[in-house]
C-alpha cells in the first residue's frame, strides 16, 4: 500500500486530499482545505500554508505528493501570488522527503473523467464515484483528490511499463 497526497495550490484556499493505493484499488483517507486570511500579508499567508501542509504530512504520513500545475491568467499579480502558493505546495513535501509530481489540469481531468474539457461538477462527481465515502465539501478538496487519483493512475502505468507489462 502507498499513501498519496494531492495538492491543489491556492493562496486563499489550498485543497488537499489523501488517498491510499493498493494495486488498482483506491481508498479515500481524508480531504480538506487550508484557508488563509485575505487581510494578512502574503508572507504570513505563505507561512500559514507551510505550517498547515507540514501538520498534514506529519499526521497522515503520505509517501508521495502530486501538485497541480498552474495556468497563467490575465491578472499578473494573481498569477504571481498563485505561483507563491504553488512554490509552498512543491517545497513542503520535498522538504519532508516525499517525491513530488506535477500534473496539468487537463491531464487530471482526462485521468479522472476521461476528457480534458470536464467541468468542476463532473470532476467532483467522478471523485465521489471513484472514492466511495468521500463527502468532498469544497471544489478545492475535490480537485486535490482528483490530482491524487491522476497520480495513482500515472504511477501504475509507469510501473507496468517498467516491468514490461503490455497494456491493452
What does this structure look like?
By secondary structure, the protein is α/β, with parallel strands linked by helices. The chain is 49% helix and 23% strand. The protein has helices spanning 42-60, 76-95, 105-112, 120-130, 139-162, and strands spanning 2-8, 13-22, 25-35, 64-68, 99-103. The protein has a 5-stranded mixed beta sheet with strand order 3-2-1-4-5. A hairpin with a 4-residue loop joins strand 1 and strand 2 (13-22). The longest helix is centred in the last third of the chain and has 24 residues, at 139-162. The chain is globular and about 50 Å long. The chain starts with a strand and ends in a 6-residue tail after the last helix. The mean pLDDT is 91.
Overall helicity: 40-55%
The low-confidence parts are none
Total strands: the figure is 5
Indicate the mean pLDDT.
91
Listing every helix as H and every strand as E from the N terminus to the C terminus, the arrangement reads: EEEHEHEHHH
User: What is the approximate shape?
Assistant: globular
Arrangement of strands in the largest sheet: 3-2-1-4-5
Q: What is the tally of helical segments? A: 5
| Radius of gyration, in angstroms, nearest whole number | 16 Å
Question: Approximately what portion of the residues adopt beta-strand conformation?
Answer: 15-25%
Largest sheet: 5 strands, mixed
Distance between the termini: 24 Å
**From the helix content, strand content and strand pairing, which structural class follows?**
alpha/beta
Amino acid at each position: 500500500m502507498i499513501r498519496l497526497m494531492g495538492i491543489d495550490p491556492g493562496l486563499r484556499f489550498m485543497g488537499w486530499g489523501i488517498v491510499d493505493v493498493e494495486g488498482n484499488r483506491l481508498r479515500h483517507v481524508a480531504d480538506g482545505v487550508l484557508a488563509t486570511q485575505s487581510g494578512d500579508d502574503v508572507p504570513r499567508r505563505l507561512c500559514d500554508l507551510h505550517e498547515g501542509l507540514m501538520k498534514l504530512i506529519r499526521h497522515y504520513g503520505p509517501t508521495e505528493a502530486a501538485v497541480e500545475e498552474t495556468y497563467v491568467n490575465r491578472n499578473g499579480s494573481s498569477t504571481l501570488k498563485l505561483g507563491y502558493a504553488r512554490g509552498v505546495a512543491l517545497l513542503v513535501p520535498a522538504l519532508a522527503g516525499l517525491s513530488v509530481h506535477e500534473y496539468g489540469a487537463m491531464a487530471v481531468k482526462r485521468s479522472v473523467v476521461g476528457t480534458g474539457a470536464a467541468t468542476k461538477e463532473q470532476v467532483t462527481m467522478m471523485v465521489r464515484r471513484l472514492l466511495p465515502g468521500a463527502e468532498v465539501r469544497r471544489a478545492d478538496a475535490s480537485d486535490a483528490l482528483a490530482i491524487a487519483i491522476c497520480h495513482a493512475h500515472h504511477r501504475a502505468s509507469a510501473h507496468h511499463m517498467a516491468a514490461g507489462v503490455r497494456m491493452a
